[in-house]
């Protein structure tokens, strides 16, 4: 599509006419594209080259509010849904704070070492905990070791 892609078009159609059902007819068969179309509001997803009878069935299903996906699209959607969540990456500064946190540094020490305000350190720690899906600094430190952000050798005896 010259002006927008199919996902954007689906989103625009659903925003303008929420009661209209969209059946996507596309040549794109990628996990993210199928999931994106469904998230945008498509009730059906077919590939170009689908025969006329199948296209009619999909349009009827959509008109009745039923989902109709090409088998290949259904498989892609399942793979996307089953894929583990991709955690939001830490910023460079958050990674620095995590390294120091894992070494046992308190917020005040981290702020002094990085030349930032203590409240900024607290904000970074909160963001780190949220992004890693953990509740405590200890869990974050353990995650840092497991993920290879900090090695046990790097921790040395200073944190034990």
From TrEMBL:
Keyword Oxidoreductase: no
Keyword DNA-binding: yes
Response regulatory domain segment(s): 1-63
GO biological process: phosphorelay signal transduction system; regulation of DNA-templated transcription
Membrane-spanning intervals of the chain: none
Keywords: DNA-binding, Phosphoprotein
Protein name as catalogued: Two-component transcriptional response regulator, LuxR family
Pfam families: GerE (PF00196), Response_reg (PF00072)
Entries under CDD domains matching the protein: LuxR_C_like, REC_NarL-like
Every HTH luxR-type domain range: 83-148
PANTHER family: TWO-COMPONENT RESPONSE REGULATOR
GO molecular function, one term: DNA binding
